Amino acid sequence: MTEGEVKAWLAEHFDVSRETLASLDLFSELLLDEARRQNLIAHSTIGNFWDRHIRDSAQLLTLAPAEVRSAAWLDLGSGPGLPGIVLALIGDMKMTLVESRTRRAAFLAEAVGALGLSDRVSIEAKRIERVATAPFDVIVARAFAPLPKLLGLANRFAHADTWWLLPKGKTVDEELEAIAGSWQGQFKTVKSATSPDASILVARGIGPGRRQ
After folding, report:
1. Is residue 211's pLDDT more than 80?
2. pLDDT at 209 over 90
3. What's the angle, vertex CA 178, arms to CA 174 and CA 180, rounded to 5?
4. Measuring CA to CA, how many Å separate 188 from each of 6, 136, 167, 179?
5. Contacting residues for 132 by C-beta, under 8 A, at least 6 apart
6. Phi, psi of 55 (to 5 degrees)
7. Which residues pair with 207 in a beta bridge?
8. How is the chain split into domains, by residue range?
9. What is the 3-state secondary structure of the chain?
């Protein structure tokens, strides 16, 4: 999709305001400008930025039930704020961004301030192992870690009703097979709206144990 088509898609799915679109424009400008100085996104995706990154991030909100869209969200390995900042601009959740790399965390702080999100978005500029345990209603992680490692690191932030929205590539079935003997819960894969080779793993009720 072109930038204009993505904006039309956002209006259709989320009824976004002109102010929100303007904020997404600003975020895009900030990110693409910073990408000249540090490796925030793959260079090959710059020409298709709005579809590959904005819509790809926003689609996660369509998979979250209404009762958690304004709840506490955790974005692991947020990088330049994908998907966390995009979701926070479109939705009204409280978002915590975890990013251990110093320069990326500095960019996140700059972007959150410039976008007026400081009241709803907080940044943990440290490794996930050093983040204080707290419960979150939704956990998202885009290209953070394979599923066995991700669940091992992040399960302490989940409660019984936490939703996990995890973009995955071609290896999603292999990753699910890898945790079959150690993690149980409800798992469903949904095809990505932006790539035929990608899926989003939607999970709930995750906990240690053999999956039936």
Report:
1. no
2. no
3. 115
4. 26, 20, 12, 14
5. none
6. -65, -35
7. 184
8. 59-208
9. CCHHHHHHHHHHHHCCCHHHHHHHHHHHHHHHHHCCCCCCCCHHHHHHHHHHHHHHHHHHHHCCCHHHCCCEEEEECCCCCCCHHHHHHHCCCEEEEECCCHHHHHHHHHHHHHCCCCCCEEEECCCHHHCCCCCEEEEEECCCCCHHHHHHHHHHHEEEEEEEEEEECCCHHHHHHHCCCCEEEEEEEEECCCCCCCEEEEEEEEEECCCC
- CATH architecture for residues 59-208: 3-Layer(aba) Sandwich (3.40)
User: At a CB cut-off of 8 Å and minimum separation 6, what does 184 contact?
Assistant: 205, 206, 207, 208, 209, 210, 211, 212
Instruction: Tell me the two tokens of residue 129.
Output: 């192992």
Tokens representing residue 54 in the block: 């904005």
- Angle among Cα 27, 88, 112 to the nearest 5 degrees reads 50
Write down the pTM of the prediction.
Answer: 0.95
**Residue type, position 163, single letter:** W
For residue 126, pLDDT over 90 is answered with yes
pLDDT at 212 > cutoff 80: no
